[in-house]
Amino acid sequence: MNASILFAVAGPPEAAPTPLAQVLAYIEHNACQPLRLEHLASIACLSVCRFIRVFHREFGLPPHRYICHIRIERAKALLRAGVAPAVVAGETGFYDQSHLSRHFKHFCGLTPGQYLSQLSSGTT
User: Fold this and answer.
1) Rounded to the nearest 5 degrees, what angle is found at the Cα of 98, between the Cα atoms of 94 and 99?
2) Burial class (CB in 10 A: 0-12, 13-18, 19+), 95
């Protein structure tokens, strides 16, 4: 059977996930755990320096900022669900509540408490 007939019968072959797609999936699945650049680079089969450059070029953020962004988005969802900030910190991979607050303010311009106040007043 030639390739064109096989393609017509079976459809296009599914592309294997790219190494960066595998890294993104790993980050999404393990965002609340400590993530080491060395491990992420090994998933992509790149050196750490090359991984950082390629990741930044592809996604517009270095890996650490991307991970923080994912964690903050999860933190916002938990805060909206009524989970206490101290619990949210542990559930989203931050060391403690002050670590969460520092990153939350950097990314959102508000502390988690201010974010909750805006939610309750309906201005967000």
Assistant:
1) 35
2) exposed
Domain boundaries, the chain: 19-121
Distant-in-sequence, close-in-space partners of 99: CB < 8 Å, separation ≥ 6: 89
Q: How long, in residues, is the chain?
A: 124
Fold of the CATH domain 19-121: Arc Repressor Mutant, subunit A (1.10.10)
Task: Please give the model's pTM, rounded to 2 decimal places.
Answer: 0.80
Could you report the per-residue pLDDT of 18-30, keeping only the tens digit for each? 889 999 999 999 9
> What amino acid is encoded at 93 in this protein?
G
CA neighbor of 112 nearest in space, from 76, 87, 77: 76
